[in-house]
């Protein structure tokens, strides 16, 4: 499971450098670069939100390998059409949208197989999410480093072919190499005893929505991460490429900064996997955001030399390494297995809802005000979001269900009393 996820995510990280650089190099337009990012992420978020019931019903395994295969096919078409001189901007946007639409349910399917993989491997849930975080950070290290090098040496279209190969390999691993019987459709038992199991797409969808609405801690995490994801998308999709172009570093420096941050994040995730079960989640969580957020924006805004930028990325990456293991453990502890597809689809889609707008808004803002003011505003908003959200009372719930996977939801009265209501 880790290998399949690593391969697919590595391809995605390669594409995250190759595609924006291809658009920026061929058009010279930050706005078009943001538009391409929007056309990939908007379908990603929308389709991911709506396919949760289908993933639960069809089974995450079959959804994972089929959607990865679709992504691979669409990624291959981009360089082929460009080589024939037939790649117009509308056609590029349509292909990018198809890749995003396929990636959404594919990523969701891999994510909700993590608890089952942990059970089969007899690995504690919190450690499993930590190892998964290491895996994600490793992909974020290898992908940008390889992507930056391939783009610099062979061009962005070759990197897109590499991306397609990664998706195809990930599809093969999930389809063939996982244990027999893993990733089957969720059982149709009712959420509460004495109630009929829901049937039909919209009833299943509504069941996931009702559960998520009754979880104030999950909702607060989702809203806060939604804002930071928007800012991160603007940063990675437009602000860093424009900074790299203006500073003369080019795609190689994009890969270098991403790789440095991700290497440090691997260290943070390894520590989280080893000792997270003995640490209080709340202070670690917000300290991680403090290190990983605003400093990255500010160091670019003030034109710091490259060694300072790399140092800030390293410290921020270390802090970021603790975040996803904590978020993943909280989700798997509080959401029943049979609802993972629906609830995680809605939660992830909500948290990612701002990502399509991130590149679009950043491209327009840079065109209107310049790079440095946009970076300063982004850093200030990031700092305020992560610190003000920490004042809400529901964060006290972070350790309540620690270390055990959810089999049934906690009583409604306990959820309302502990959280004080949804934001």
Automatic annotation (TrEMBL):
Task: Please give, as recorded in its UniProt entry, the membrane topology of this protein.
Answer: Multi-pass membrane protein
Start and end residues of each Major facilitator superfamily (MFS) profile domain:
1-396
Gene name tied to this protein: mrx(A)
Q: Where is this region: Disordered?
A: 400-423
What is the protein name given in its UniProt record? Macrolide resistance MFS transporter Mrx(A)
Is the Nuclease keyword given for this protein?
Answer: no
> Cross-referenced Gene3D superfamilies, in alphabetical order?
MFS general substrate transporter like domains
Q: Which PANTHER family match?
A: ENTEROBACTIN EXPORTER ENTS, INTEGRAL MEMBRANE EFFLUX PROTEIN-RELATED
Q: What is its main location?
A: membrane
Where are the membrane-spanning stretches?
88-106, 145-178, 217-240, 252-276, 283-302, 308-332, 344-365, 371-391
Question: Which keywords describe this protein according to UniProt?
Answer: Cell membrane, Membrane, Transmembrane, Transmembrane helix, Transport
Q: Which Pfam families match?
A: MFS_3
Q: Where in the cell is it found?
A: Cell inner membrane
Species per Swiss-Prot/TrEMBL record: Streptomyces tremellae
InterPro entries the record matches: MFS_dom (IPR020846), MFS_trans_sf (IPR036259), TM_effector (IPR010290)
């Amino acid at each position: 499971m880790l290998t399949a996820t690593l391969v697919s995510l590595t391809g995605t990280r390669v594409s995250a450098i190759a595609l924006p650089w291809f658009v920026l190099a061929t058009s010279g337009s930050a706005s078009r670069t943001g538009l391409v990012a929007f056309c990939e992420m908007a379908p990603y978020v929308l389709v991911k939100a709506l396919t949760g019931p289908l993933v639960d019903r069809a089974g995450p395994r079959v959804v994972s390998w089929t959607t990865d295969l679709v992504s691979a096919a669409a990624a291959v078409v981009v360089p082929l059409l460009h080589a024939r001189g037939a790649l117009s901007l509308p056609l590029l946007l349509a292909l990018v949208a198809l890749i995003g639409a396929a990636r959404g349910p594919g990523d969701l399917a891999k994510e909700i197989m993590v608890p089952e993989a942990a059970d089969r491997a007899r690995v504690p849930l919190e450690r499993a999410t930590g190892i998964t975080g290491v895996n994600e950070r490793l992909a974020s290290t290898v992908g940008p480093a390889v992507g930056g090098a391939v783009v610099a040496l062979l061009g962005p279209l070759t990197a897109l072919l590499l991306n397609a190969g990664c998706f195809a390999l990930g599809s093969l691993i999930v389809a063939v190499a996982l244990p027999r019987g893993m990733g089957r459709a969720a059982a149709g038992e009712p959420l509460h005893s004495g109630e009929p199991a829901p049937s039909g797409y919209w009833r299943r969808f509504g069941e996931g929505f009702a559960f998520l609405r009754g979880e104030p801690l999950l909702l607060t995490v989702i809203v806060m991460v939604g804002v930071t994801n928007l800012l991160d998308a603007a940063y990675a999709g437009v602000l860093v490429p424009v900074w790299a172009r203006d500073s003369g570093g080019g795609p190689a420096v994009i890969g270098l900064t991403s790789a440095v941050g991700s290497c440090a994040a691997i260290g943070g995730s390894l520590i989280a996997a080893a000792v997270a079960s003995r640490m209080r989640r709340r202070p670690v969580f917000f300290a991680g955001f403090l290190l990983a957020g605003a400093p990255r924006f500010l160091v670019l805004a003030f034109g710091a030399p490259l060694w300072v930028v790399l140092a800030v990325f390293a410290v921020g990456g270390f802090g970021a390494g603790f975040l996803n293991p904590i978020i993943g453990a909280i989700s798997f502890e509080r959401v029943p297995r049979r609802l993972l597809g629906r609830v995680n689809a809605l939660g992830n889609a909500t948290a990612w809802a701002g990502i399509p707008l991130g590149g679009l808004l950043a491209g327009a803002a840079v065109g209107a005000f310049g790079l440095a003011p946009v970076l300063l505003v982004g850093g200030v908003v990031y700092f305020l979001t992560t610190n003000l959200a920490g004042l809400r009372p529901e964060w006290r719930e972070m350790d309540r269900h620690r270390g055990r996977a959810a089999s049934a939801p906690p009583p409604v009265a306990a959820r309302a009393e502990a959280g004080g209501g949804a934001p």
